[in-house]
Amino acid sequence: MDKLLKDTVEIVLNKIGDDINNIVVERAVFGLFFSGVKLSTDHGGLCFTPVKEIPEAVCCPSSAAVMPFSGKLSDIPVKQYLDDIFCDNVLRRTLGIAALNALSNLIWEKYDAENKPIMNRDAFDEIDVNKYDKTVVVGSLIPMLKKLIANNRDFTILEQDPNTLKKHELQYYAPSEDAHKYVPDADLLVITGVTVLNDTLSDLLEMARDDAEILVTGPTASMIPDVLFEKGVTMTGGIVVTNADELLDVISEAGSGYHFFGQSAERAIIKKGGE
């Protein structure tokens, strides 16, 4: 069990209190790129859809084994979704994290929260890559890679699947299992939020320098960042859902950020200590 997520769930439950018992998940959608939920409070949350982690889902019988509750995902207590964050089924974990992100959205709007999102800000725009001598990017984060290459910076890409990288990016590639060789030297560490889903984020943060600038970004990381900040993260970038039903309709039709930003969801950042 990832302690980072466990502690985050505990914070969410403490902030919402007994009201949590009245909240259910009204809708749940698995999309090609993103999966999401809508709560009975009208708040929504997203998570990356881990398609590559379910290669066995290639026919009806095996797909049914991967997601055994299809058709029975609505009107379920949200606490049940939170429990699924810690199960072995990656798709149930996906919806659990989406529910956690939706509850974070609820807390920012209706409950006490020290760290609140700054809307309509892109995390990559906040970083001046020329300030850092050595950057490590965990995941194929294309906007950051373009920025680093354009500024001729010294950086390494840690990626599980090198096929996600373009030919000119491969010279910067290192396998993700070699993180211990690169992360401790980075003064800028940019991490995909998918590491929240696959339980690798905690290890990466343990390896990082105490004085490193650390950004964790992506829809999966769109949660209350209190625990992340305690672990050394200095900024998070995520997605705040503004119209849950509309967003779920879009992602159910294989929509991506290009289809919903500025309409049913917005980019947002949270900085440790505020602006």
* Sheet with most strands: strand arrangement: 5-12-11-10-9-6-7-8
Shape: globular
How many whole angstroms does the radius of gyration measure? 18 Å
What is the distance, rounded to the nearest whole angstrom, between the alpha carbons of the first and last residues?
33 Å
Quick one: CATH class of the largest domain?
A: Alpha Beta
Mean pLDDT: 92
Name the CATH architecture of the largest domain. 3-Layer(aba) Sandwich
- Percent in strands: 15-25%
- Relative helix content: 25-40%
Structural class: alpha/beta
- Find the CATH topology of the largest domain: Rossmann fold
Query: Which regions are unreliable across 5 or more consecutive residues at pLDDT < 50?
Result: none
Order of helices and strands: HEEEHEHHEEHEEHEHHEHEHHE
Q: TL;DR of this structure?
A:
This protein has helices spanning 3-16, 60-66, 78-84, 90-110, 142-150, 179-182, 194-197, 201-207, 226-230, 244-251, 257-260, and strands at 24-30, 34-39, 44-48, 76-77, 118-119, 135-138, 155-159, 173-175, 188-192, 213-217, 235-241, 265-271. It is of the alpha/beta class and 275 residues long.
Description:
It is a single chain. Helix 1 packs parallel to helix 4 and helix 3 (78-84) packs across helix 4 (90-110). This protein has 275 residues and is an alpha/beta fold. The radius of gyration is 18 Å and the shape is globular. The chain has two domains: 3-110, Enolase-like, domain 1; 118-243 and 262-271, Rossmann fold, CATH 3.40.50. The longest helix has 21 residues, at 90-110. The protein is 33% helix and 21% strand. It has helices at 3-16, 60-66, 78-84, 90-110, 142-150, 179-182, 194-197, 201-207, 226-230, 244-251, 257-260, and strands at residues 24-30, 34-39, 44-48, 76-77, 118-119, 135-138, 155-159, 173-175, 188-192, 213-217, 235-241, 265-271. The strands form two sheets. Strands 5-12-11-10-9-6-7-8 form an eight-stranded mixed sheet. Strands 3-2-1-4 form a four-stranded antiparallel sheet. It contains eleven helices and twelve strands. The model has no long low-confidence stretch (mean pLDDT 92).
